[in-house]
Design a protein that fits this description.
5-stranded mixed sheet; alpha/beta; 6-stranded mixed sheet; 16 helices
Length: about 525
């Protein structure tokens, strides 16, 4: 490929490297383009001219992405030298890190970025992106990258039959067994499994062995000891051995979760839970349970490799089941997310488009869940099945609006009408606004106090979401049209305006350009 300044008169067929006149970067220049540039007084342009044997950026990216798209992963059409790969089902991302590193070593023109291996993903999540840096790359480089690439795949979760044994000493703190059962059930069900059997037994090796024998037909066995396992000779591992099992590894380089025990009973995996597994904060048990529930073999070497990244810190975006049992901080307030629209201007279901590694609607739901509301409702309509799949594992209640094509007001009525009598206020949010700050929503909740309408404001403009007290629910239920309830605010005297910290209260996603802008911002 030849790159540099080219006289406009010789530029037909070249690729424009920088915008010139009304023409945008990346345009393949036509005779009419060249004539227009000359008429505008432009005599030279920075451009690239492909040489024989070169492959243009989009075809190169598409070819490599096609090689990378394995089971549960699809390649999107290439544009501007980039081809994205997205998950088509829920599960764990499985990849060959060494092979994918080899792709990046083929030529500096070829780049590949992926999520971390065994990352939990949902349908529509961006899992990898191929980017060709220049406007073209040699056929040889593309062929070598194709040869080096190994397909990415998503290992799906399945409805595995799981058994749980909880030991009790009779001297422990009340409620420990119940906490262990509740947390384990939440984790298993969030991964599509079925906690089929729960046995509470004495904290003794023979009692554990007998309970394991009763669950011989289960796909996974879990043992939660009342006291932490401190050695291979302790009660839980000895109970597994007494049942005919084999200890693969005791201890893992993950904190919290160091005292996890990995074993097997014939062909059935057995996991001895660390004490931290009684809580839903992410820990080493999650790192082992997720691949097992996705049908992946986990051995001692796998545990040893979990030390890199094994110092866990909780972040709001982590797909953890912790939120399933989050104690409400705003017990009388519900969140209502309107997610039923037709996405006409996008041309496809915009709420399923990946933003920062997760479907747009999932990002919005996670933001509201982090507030600690009494509950979060999502009103669906168009592509209700896809939206529901994107929210899988999150503790939200789905309300379907069969009249969604009649406008936004029908979704508002469906959401408000589904709220219980105990709800004193509703925070109404739009499903296509992923960047409303948690601090701004918290400020709305505090300012409204369940008694006043609270609306975010920045530079004199009102935005979303809006907190509506129960006193206004009848008016919301009577509202009609497709403009939301904004017009109702004008005639109210109990509205408090809350200063927002940024423009997230205005930033919605309606068109492909909006989506590109959001992704380009790095948010």
């Amino acid at each position: 490929m030849k790159f540099g300044l080219i006289p406009v008169a010789e530029a037909v067929g070249a690729v424009l490297a920088h915008g010139a006149g009304a023409l945008r970067k990346g345009r393949l220049l036509t005779p009419d383009d060249v004539a227009g540039l000359a008429a505008a007084g432009i005599h030279e342009v920075m451009a690239a001219r492909l040489a024989p044997g070169d492959v243009d950026e989009n075809r190169a990216a598409a070819r490599i992405a096609a090689r990378l798209a394995g089971e549960g992963v699809a390649a999107s059409p290439a544009a501007t030298g980039r081809a994205n790969l997205v998950a088509t089902r829920a599960g764990l991302l499985v990849l060959d890190g060494a092979a994918l590193a080899a792709v990046n070593g083929v030529d500096e023109a070829v780049t590949l970025a992926t999520l971390l291996p065994l990352r939990r993903v949902q349908p529509g999540d961006l899992v990898a992106t191929v980017k060709i840096i220049p406007f073209a790359v040699s056929e040889g480089a593309v062929a070598r990258a194709e040869a080096a690439a190994r397909p990415l795949r998503v290992a799906p979760f399945s409805r595995r039959k799981v058994g749980l044994i909880i030991t009790e000493t009779g001297r422990g703190k009340a409620g420990l067994a119940a906490k262990a059962e509740a947390a384990t059930r939440a984790r298993v069900e969030a991964l599509g499994g079925h906690l089929a059997s729960v046995r509470r037994v004495a904290h003794a090796a023979q009692a554990i062995a007998a309970a394991l024998a009763e669950m011989a037909d289960h796909a996974l066995l879990l043992v939660a000891g009342e006291t932490a396992t401190g050695d291979r000779g302790d009660v839980v591992p000895q109970g597994i051995v007494a049942a005919g099992g084999r200890i693969s590894r005791f201890g893992m380089p993950v904190d919290p979760g160091n005292l996890l025990l990995l074993a097997s009973l014939r062909d059935t995996p057995v996991i001895g839970l660390p004490s931290c597994a009684r809580a839903l904060k992410r820990n080493g048990f999650d790192l082992v349970l997720e691949p097992v529930m996705a049908g992946l073999a986990v051995g001692p070497n796998d545990l040893a490799g979990m030390g890199v990244g094994g110092l866990l810190a909780e972040i709001a975006s982590r797909p953890s089941p912790r939120a399933l049992r989050m104690r409400p901080r705003h017990a009388g307030v519900a969140g209502v997310i309107l997610a039923a629209g037709l996405s006409r201007r996008m041309g496809r279901t915009k709420l399923l488009e990946p933003v920062a590694g997760a479907p747009l609607i999932r990002r919005v739901a996670e933001r509201l869940l982090a507030l600690g509301l009494a509950e979060v409702l999502v009103v669906t309509g168009h592509d209700a099945e896809g939206v529901g799949a994107a929210l899988a594992g999150l503790p939200v209640r789905l309300i379907h609006n069969a009249d969604y094509a009649q406008g936004l007001s029908t979704s508002l009525r469906a959401g408000i009408g589904a709220l219980g009598a105990e709800v004193k206020a509703a925070l109404v949010a739009l499903g296509d606004m992923p960047h409303v700050a948690e601090d701004d929503m918290t400020a709305l909740l505090q300012a409204g106090g369940g008694k006043r309408v609270a609306v975010p404001v920045r530079a004199g403009r009102r935005g979303n979401p809006v907190l509506w007290p129960r006193a206004h629910f009848p008016a919301l239920m009577a509202f009609a049209g497709d403009q939301g309830a904004r017009s109702l605010l004008a005639g109210l005297d109990d509205v408090v305006e809350v200063a927002a910290g940024d423009d997230g209260i205005f930033t919605d996603i309606d068109t492909p350009d909006d989506l590109t802008s959001i992704r380009g911002s790095g948010n």
